[in-house]
């Protein structure tokens, strides 16, 4: 007999016992039996359902089912003073606020949390993930610094690896990732880092294996779908790459790099309208990101809209003097003037200073210009 079945028998014989009920709910939730837990809560007496322990587990059911607003309401009813509230309640409230799109409120909730009941790692991980989403990468690494040993240390190391990767320090990222993978070969973020670093080095078989490992356990991992799409793009299967990258944007719509990757895939197909829509999505997320303005410049240049391209190039280089997309746009304008050698040198300079698979060679830009050139 399973532990859940055993606890269910006890709870049925003593239906007003809150300890038995909460133990049973915890077991059901740990087993992923969300519907059974919610049904059990729905059947208890109103007085039992109003108890803090039961209400907390009802909030967790709501959270796991995606009903963040209901979870927030339930959890807020348990907190009269956030500074003295149990860390688990504060964590779940902040998590629900974050999932509901209110990152700043979630950070404010966490700012008052205390970790006296041993949830230090959980609180630190959540804070770091929120800061990561807000692109405050150094602050996110700092949030993880207190966690030196814990049952969730490999998760801390994996997230820290991903933060170092997004900062651009692949050496530290790989070191942290390998530490995490020694303990947990399936650690999500660590495998993302391993796959991405291999992708940038164009070790595509190794990269694909890492991303496939992630997707086997985390089928909604946007970063893994992004990596798979970039892998397939490099292998030359553009339609499949586009499909993978579109999947990535559906599960990770607030990641600018994913929209950029999809835009480049659409450019490979000569779909300038699609690329413009993808750059528009990136622009809606951050209007000050130089590479997005560089993407606009490239689309304008490929459409023979020289004035608009030049204006976008100015904005892009002001925001990011080292941006690549604006330079690609400049190379297209040079091609239009017949200055082929200058265009090639400009692109070769980009390739020379861009590690791994992040640069687009001159021949592609030349072919792309021919692909979209009006016929007649």
From TrEMBL:
Give a Pfam family name: TPR_19
InterPro entries xref list: TPR-like_helical_dom_sf, TPR_rpt
Sorted alphabetically, which SMART domains does this protein's record hold?
A: TPR (SM00028)
Spell out the protein name for this chain.
Tetratricopeptide repeat protein
Organism of origin is: Dyella acidisoli
